[in-house]
Specification:
Low-confidence stretches: 4-22
Structural class: mainly alpha
CATH architecture: Orthogonal Bundle
Helix content: 40-55%
Number of helices: 6
CATH superfamily: Cytochrome c-like domain
Number of domains: 1
Shape: globular
Oligomer: single chain
CATH topology: Cytochrome Bc1 Complex, Chain D, domain 2
Mean pLDDT: 80
């Protein structure tokens, strides 16, 4: 009986995760609550270097070596986002980018909350800011 309950619970949990990812808007949008999250990690040379290492290990295969979306390894066959252009489909504030990295948006862009610490995610954001557009005015 216990195994059955664990199995049923797991199925419902996975269904919720899949539904949550599928319901994430595809069209460009903003996350108002995420905009309120501030980056607690100073964007200095050490943070940017740490973010570069994290990027190369976890992100470059999909987003490409220069973060232009040309890595070609998207999990579900989609086109990875260009992370150095002006268009950020899920919001461009540090907080919005943090939420995308943490929670993911689709089968192609899975969440990294189980693979990276929050501090590592902030280092990654600092690295991306060093390559592309700076944080916009809110």
């Amino acid at each position: 009986m216990r195994r059955w309950l664990v199995l049923v619970s797991s199925v419902f949990m996975m269904a919720g995760l899949i539904a949550g990812q599928q319901s994430h808007p595809v069209e460009p949008h903003r996350h108002l609550e995420a905009q309120k999250i501030n980056n607690p990690v100073p964007s200095d040379a050490a943070s940017i270097e740490e973010g570069r290492k994290i990027y190369l290990r976890h992100c470059a295969s999909c987003h490409g070596p220069q973060a232009k979306g040309d890595g070609g390894m998207a999990l579900a066959g989609g086109t990875p986002s260009n992370l150095v252009d002006e268009a950020w489909d899920h919001g461009s504030s540090d907080g919005e980018i943090f939420v995308v990295i943490r929670d993911g948006t689709s089968a192609d862009m899975e969440g990294y909350k189980d693979r990276l610490t929050e501090k590592q995610m902030w280092h990654l954001i600092n690295f991306l800011r060093s390559l592309g557009p700076k944080q916009p005015n809110k």
